[in-house]
């Protein structure tokens, strides 16, 4: 728990704990990936799986449209789950309700994840541990390309359906059939398998009054892309020291992590979209060995990978924590903590000019972008702790603290074009681009928070527990007078089966504890650090006169009266423990209302600017979590079963009566009574079957003509025409009913486990070349389009094939493109053997386990259109300004991993 | 432990804490705020440059052509949905329709922001300040001209409106917007310097001439012929609006070495490397544009260029031969359009022959990313653009030829076209274009055309002279001929025995002469209702 520890039995809030054991043996590259499915309502979505890319994390869903990242603290200091060596983790606590996280008031509204790292123990002999694995990653392709001949026939059909001439003659199709299909470009740009391995070495122990941990880790994940040595490497080093000197306890942790990422110099979504859409009548290289440019592409993804240059990230992270605690009396202690998280990020992108001769391609300008960013987030805390028992029954604990925290980011960038195509250095023809986001000297951004906080715990007879928390914060993100906010919380627990009148139940059923909490938490993490100010941005080359660039200033509107978002959160739950603690069940129900959400409410276009933030919205979020754990022994078999299920559903309660529509390839709506960023569109109702059907159906206003085989829409407002007024809120993009299930069994040194993770309900709106045949006049068409409507196939899955503006009717936003992305994934399987201690003991090995492990082995989903069910265009915040193109299939494929691992303890 | 030691510890902790207490007054190191910005003597110039930058869009400028019968937009996404608009399949959500509205109101807010704050700028010379104000007011009036032309009645916003006001403001009748524009243009013309009064470094700024020329254009769109003629005469017969003349080389008007030439009255200024547009990639030969050819000239445009003898290709005695269609044509055809067999100089400096007939390679009409009509545009091709076709070439909004052709049109419509008017306008323009045949140059050959015949001649002259200069779409709408020329098949080059059918256009005269107010604005502000007729 925050700023201290607490026994599980006395917990009054909603907390899930994940132990190191649950992370072990998973062939993943970060702790985040290992946590997916491990705790209820700790929702992790992998929207990008390229080496080095971060996953998105939510606790209990979304209750604001602003940053919904939980606060992640490593040993009490802000840190990162992506950078930490998973092997250094002792345990992870997820604080979900207001009571457990209120002590972090200011930034706890989205939950808190506390990571505790391993430490040595005093007076223990040094223990050396090695753990590592090596294995292969394989891409999982779900879209199936068509043969060359099938493509030609479907393309002709689409053209003719669209009133155009067929592109391929029967003779051409016949010849293609004789020649056979070319290799699919996705197979040409992706390796069938790539290496991934990971090694960790750690020593723990105690020397005199000092306990220590020293560890090092190395992780190497090769990219599946072909090309020169793409991939991700991470180096971790950590030392944790603590010393007990009489009443004084000193501790110091230092962790260093370095990420080296080497990737191609382009955007993966463009590169993949090109590779995906080229039909198998074109080779990726022509017979003379030149990179081929297909008719719908002006570049070649393999050329971009092999000749297009390189983007390198070299990111260093330094995480420090130092603390001193002094026992003033046997009841009172004081503690000072200083922590800092320093990130030193460097990017060097060198995009080479590619000579496509004899073809005419783009990519013919070399460019180099180099940037550096150094951020320091530091944090000082002073704490007073009091603890005393009165009589045998009354226990009192109190905490009073002060914390100050700041973040400073210094960054600079240089962008040049026409650099030397071999070295990337500037030459005679090189120009430095001077746009606002091109080249700039050091810029500094900051925010800061000052806080006081406290906690009071009282328990009676280990049966009744009460807790009160408060925190007062001041944030630099708001103007003077609007900076401060006070966040209280209350919670209680009752071990009801300890009551005499429940003795019978206790005997027959088990221990039952009831918990309840209510509290308020704050959020100030809006996109802008200075949203309360009107900001003028000067750009050196805003305009020009007579070919001389002129500086200009654009402005962004600010709002001086913005202040904290505050979330009121209520939680009730119980913990039931039966069969001598072998079966435990925890349940929580929560309801959270976030008020004063900082929104850039939409404005009519005639407003003429992007509106400022205002405290305008209210969102309700409710759900439940249930976790069941069961241990049992049958003969020589030891079984462990764990399952968890959680739900969250948000709803915009107050949006000042406004409706925000983001119109586009996908239309989103924010409207009172519906979840944040819901999908909006027409209701599809099968296909027009014939001309009479069209004649007898309401006419569409946005196309001049529909034809049999086109998607038919429901005239929801029954005004006789199909138009924008027939649209409705059709889906919620955030996962619901997330679940995890694990089963492990041990037998005579053998162990086996499976871990399944999934989502019970989620809507995803798919668009673009991943699902639409001949999207945007391109040549993409896949196996799933074979079952298209024709007069002879009226019960088709897909409408008649069309191309260009003929597709306007079928491309309209509608439920036809909305899918339920529920899935269950066999996330991890392990089979291990621990050598008998009698054998290993002879060579001073305490424990030696070898295992086979597999990740992402199997996915079951109803979404059968060739995209991974986990794809989402959103990051963790449902913010419509931060959408990716993942939902059009332009993503690096999810990897399946097989690996062998070894754990040795000396 | 004594109470005293207690206090020492507590105090020590608090001291340490407050010593480390973070400052909360933080601002960005690289941006200004309201308080700091307007104290800067450069603030007015910087804010005004922002207004200039948003005066008009390079994308609209070029893709306007594909909203007319001059060109095809071959992609459903380029030009903000230009293809759908040309096909009549659009509404208030179509990107261009929604975007143009916001674009202009954004530009108007920028002007209003400057006008509201310019008094705060310290040490600003009074004369300079008045000029800045006039420049900003001109740009604002220009935005209203565009808004009125596309949407009819629009909200008239002369101040930085509040968030709340934007949900309540209604539309001002078109007639009032028109009066406002004309008054503003008159007011700023009185303040703005003449072209020659600006220093070398200020070339490209808005001049008195620009204000007068735009006013003439506004009046032209209203068919107020007398007033149009009067303004044009002042340009032609004196120096009150500045010294302008026809640039001697038609093709040269659009080349980078001739920027700011004698004929430019108003343009969007670009600077190589530093402020560029990348529009030419959409319409130059595919091998040089190297991305999808988003826009291509139509056969209808090609056909409208007269023969060197001044006769239309289908006129008796024109000498037109369908098998050698590009011989003996208006020299502006070759200067504007690239066809199968045209010579072309690449950015690298190689002279190549562009082939567009089916099966002739990367530029061929049967290649799906290449031109779908078999034609490309040559006008505005900037050989000095960089590898990604980023060009610093200025885009001309009004040039002196427009004054001459506005004059010719006004005089024709007034029934006053005569040899004198002809010689100063059509003849001068054709001579400059390279016509030499007296049959094309002398008024005597056209004296008996009658008003309608002469009107058609002037209209055709406008079309050919200004192809790819963002004029045609406005002309066909003000002439009310869009329902004729924008309905039916748009053609490409001749392949085999027939002309390619490149697109099918739909124009509903009861509806399409005005765009709808964007759906998003209607959704949020009911005072914008009723929407335009038919929408």
From TrEMBL, chain B:
Residues 46-220 form the SusD-like N-terminal domain. It comes from the Bacteria. One of its GO terms (cellular component) is cell outer membrane. It is found in: Cell outer membrane. Keywords: Cell outer membrane, Membrane, Signal. InterPro entries: SusD-like_N, SusD_RagB_dom, TPR-like_helical_dom_sf. Belongs to the SusD family. This is Putative outer membrane starch-binding protein.
């Amino acid at each position: 728990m925050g700023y201290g520890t607490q026994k599980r039995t006395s917990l009054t809030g909603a907390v899930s704990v994940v132990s190191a054991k649950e992370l072990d043996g998973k062939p993943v590259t970060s702790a985040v990936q290992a946590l997916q499915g491990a705790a209820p309502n700790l929702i992790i979505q992998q929207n990008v799986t390229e080496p080095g890319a971060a996953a998105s994390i939510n606790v209990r869903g979304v209750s604001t449209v602003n940053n919904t990242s939980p606060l992640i603290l490593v040993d009490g200091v802000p840190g990162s789950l992506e950078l930490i060596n998973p092997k250094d983790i002792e345990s992870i606590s997820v604080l979900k309700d207001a009571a457990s996280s209120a002590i972090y008031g200011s930034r706890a509204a989205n939950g808190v994840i506390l990571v505790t790292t391993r430490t040595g123990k005093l007076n223990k002999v040094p223990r050396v541990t090695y753990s590592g694995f090596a294995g292969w990653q394989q891409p999982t392709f779900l879209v199936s390309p068509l043969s060359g001949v099938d493509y030609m026939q479907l393309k002709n059909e689409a053209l003719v359906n669209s009133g155009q001439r067929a592109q391929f003659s029967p003779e051409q199709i016949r010849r293609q059939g004789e020649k056979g299909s070319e290799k699919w470009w996705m197979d040409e740009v992706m390796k069938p398998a790539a290496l991934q391995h990971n090694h960790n070495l750690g020593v723990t122990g105690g020397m005199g009054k000092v306990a220590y941990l020293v560890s090092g880790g190395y992780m190497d994940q090769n990219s599946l892309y072909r090309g020169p040595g793409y991939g991700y490497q991470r180096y971790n080093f950590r030392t944790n020291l603590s010393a007990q000197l009489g009443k004084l306890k000193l501790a110091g942790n230092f962790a260093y992590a370095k990420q080296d990422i080497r990737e191609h110099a382009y955007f993966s979504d463009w590169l993949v979209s090109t590779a995906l859409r080229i039909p198998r009548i074109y080779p990726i290289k022509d017979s003379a060995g030149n990179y081929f440019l297909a008719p719908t592409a002006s570049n070649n993804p393999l050329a971009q990978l092999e000749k297009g240059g390189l983007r390198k990230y070299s990111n260093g992270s330094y995480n420090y924590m130092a603390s001193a605690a002094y026992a003033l009396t046997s009841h009172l202690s004081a503690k000072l903590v200083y922590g800092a998280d320093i990130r030193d990020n460097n990017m060097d992108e060198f995009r080479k000019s590619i000579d496509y001769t004899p073809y005419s391609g783009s990519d013919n300008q070399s460019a180099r972008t180099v940037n550096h960013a150094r951020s320091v987030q530091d944090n000082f805390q002073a704490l007073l702790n009091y603890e005393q028992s009165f009589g045998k029954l009354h226990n009192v604990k109190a905490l009073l603290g002060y914390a100050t925290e700041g973040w400073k980011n210094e960054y600079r960038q240089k962008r040049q074009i026409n650099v030397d195509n071999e070295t990337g250095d500037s030459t005679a023809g090189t120009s430095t681009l001077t746009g606002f986001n091109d080249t700039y000297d050091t810029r500094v951004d900051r925010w800061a928070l000052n806080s006081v906080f406290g906690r009071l715990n009282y328990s009676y007879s280990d049966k009744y527990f009460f807790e009160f928390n408060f925190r007062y914060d001041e944030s630099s993100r708001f103007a003077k007078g609007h900076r401060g906010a006070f966040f209280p919380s209350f919670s209680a627990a009752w071990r009801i089966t300890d009551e005499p009148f429940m003795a019978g139940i206790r005997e027959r059923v088990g221990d039952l504890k009831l918990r309840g909490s209510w509290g308020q938490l704050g959020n100030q993490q809006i996109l802008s650090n200075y949203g309360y100010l009107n900001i003028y941005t000067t750009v050196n080359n805003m305009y020009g006169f007579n070919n001389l660039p002129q500086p200009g200033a654009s402005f962004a509107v600010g709002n001086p009266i913005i202040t904290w978002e505050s979330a009121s959160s209520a939680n009730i739950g119980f913990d039931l423990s039966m069969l001598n603690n072998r079966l435990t069940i925890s349940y929580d129900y929560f309801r959270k209302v976030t008020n004063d959400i900082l929104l850039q409410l939409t404005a009519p276009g005639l407003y003429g600017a992007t509106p400022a933030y205002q405290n305008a919205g209210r969102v309700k979020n409710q759900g439940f979590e249930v976790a069941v754990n069961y241990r049992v022994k049958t003969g020589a078999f030891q079984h462990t079963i764990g399952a968890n299920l959680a739900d969250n559903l948000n709803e915009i309660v107050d949006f000042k009566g406004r409706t925000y529509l983001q119109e586009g390839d996908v239309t989103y709506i924010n409207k009172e009574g519906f979840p944040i960023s819901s999908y909006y569109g027409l209701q599809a109702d099968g296909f027009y079957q014939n001309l009479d059907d069209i004649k007898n159906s309401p006419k569409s206003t946005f196309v001049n003509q529909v034809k049999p085989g086109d998607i038919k829409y429901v005239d929801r407002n029954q005004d006789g025409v199909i138009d924008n007024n027939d649209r409705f809120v059709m889906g919620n993009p955030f996962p619901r009913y997330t679940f995890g299930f694990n089963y492990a069994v041990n037998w005579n040194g053998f162990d086996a486990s499976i871990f399944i993770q999934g989502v019970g309900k989620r809507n995803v709106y798919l668009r673009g070349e991943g699902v639409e045949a001949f999207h945007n006049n391109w040549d993409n068409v896949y196996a799933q389009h074979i079952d298209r409507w024709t007069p002879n196939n009226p019960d088709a899955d897909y409408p008649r094939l069309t191309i260009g503006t003929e597709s306007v009717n079928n491309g309209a936003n509608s439920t036809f493109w909305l899918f339920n992305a529920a899935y269950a994934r066999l996330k991890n399987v392990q089979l291990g053997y621990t050598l008998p201690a009698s054998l290993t003991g002879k060579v001073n090995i305490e424990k030696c386990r070898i295992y086979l492990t597999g990740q992402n082995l199997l996915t079951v989903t109803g979404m059968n259109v060739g995209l991974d069910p986990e794809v989402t265009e959103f990051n963790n915040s449902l913010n419509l300004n931060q959408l990716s193109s993942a939902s059009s299939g332009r993503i690096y494929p999810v990897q399946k991993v097989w690996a062998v691992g070894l754990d040795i303890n000396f | 432990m004594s109470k005293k030691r207690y206090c020492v510890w507590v105090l020590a902790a608090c001291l340490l804490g407050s010593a480390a207490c973070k400052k909360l007054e933080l601002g960005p190191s690289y941006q200004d705020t309201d308080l700091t910005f307007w104290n800067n003597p450069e603030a007015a110039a910087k804010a005004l440059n922002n207004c200039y930058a948003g005066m008009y869009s390079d994308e609209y400028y070029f893709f306007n052509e594909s909203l007319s019968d001059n060109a095809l937009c071959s992609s459903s996404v380029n030009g903000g949905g230009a293809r759908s608009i040309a096909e009549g399949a659009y509404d208030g959500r179509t990107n261009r329709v929604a975007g143009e509205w916001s674009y202009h109101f954004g530009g108007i807010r920028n002007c209003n922001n400057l006008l509201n704050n310019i008094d705060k700028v310290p040490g600003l010379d009074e004369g300079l300040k008045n000029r800045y104000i006039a420049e900003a007011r001109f740009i604002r009036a220009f935005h209203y001209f565009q808004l009125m032309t596309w949407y009819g009645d629009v909200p008239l916003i002369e101040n930085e409106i509040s968030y709340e006001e934007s949900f309540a403001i209604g539309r001002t009748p078109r007639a009032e917007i028109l009066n406002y524009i004309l008054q503003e243009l008159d007011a700023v013309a009185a303040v703005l310097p003449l072209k020659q009064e600006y220093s070398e470094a200020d070339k490209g700024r808005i001049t008195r001439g620009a204000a007068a020329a735009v006013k003439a254009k506004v009046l032209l769109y209203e068919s107020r012929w007398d007033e149009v003629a009067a303004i044009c005469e002042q340009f032609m017969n004196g120096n009150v609006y500045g010294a302008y003349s026809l640039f001697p080389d038609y093709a040269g008007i659009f080349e980078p070495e001739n920027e700011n030439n004698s004929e430019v009255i108003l343009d969007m200024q670009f600077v190589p490397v530093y402020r560029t547009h990348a529009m030419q990639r959409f319409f130059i030969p595919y091998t040089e544009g190297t991305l999808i050819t988003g826009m291509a000239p139509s056969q209808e445009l090609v056909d409208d260029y007269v023969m060197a003898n001044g006769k239309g290709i289908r006129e008796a005695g024109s000498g037109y031969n369908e098998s050698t269609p590009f011989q003996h044509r208006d020299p502006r055809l070759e200067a504007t359009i690239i066809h199968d067999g045209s010579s072309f100089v690449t950015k690298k400096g190689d002279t190549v022959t562009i082939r567009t007939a089916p099966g002739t390679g990367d530029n061929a009409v049967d290649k799906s990313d290449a031109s779908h009509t078999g034609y490309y545009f040559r006008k505005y091709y900037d050989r000095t653009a960089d590898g990604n076709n980023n060009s610093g070439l200025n885009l001309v909004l009004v040039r002196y030829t427009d004054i001459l052709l506005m004059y010719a049109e006004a005089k024709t419509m007034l029934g006053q076209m005569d040899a004198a008017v002809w010689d100063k306008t059509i003849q001068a323009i054709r001579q400059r274009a390279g016509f030499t045949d007296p049959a094309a140059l002398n008024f005597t050959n056209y004296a008996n055309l009658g008003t309608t015949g002469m009107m058609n001649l002037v209209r055709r002259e406008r079309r050919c002279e200004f192809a790819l200069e963002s004029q045609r779409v406005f002309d066909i709408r003000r002439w009310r001929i869009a329902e004729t020329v924008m309905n039916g098949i748009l053609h490409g080059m001749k392949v085999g025995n027939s002309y390619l059918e490149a697109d099918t256009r739909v124009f509903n005269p009861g509806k399409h002469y005005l765009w709808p107010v964007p759906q998003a604005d209607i959704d949020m502000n009911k005072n914008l209702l009723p929407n335009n007729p038919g929408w």
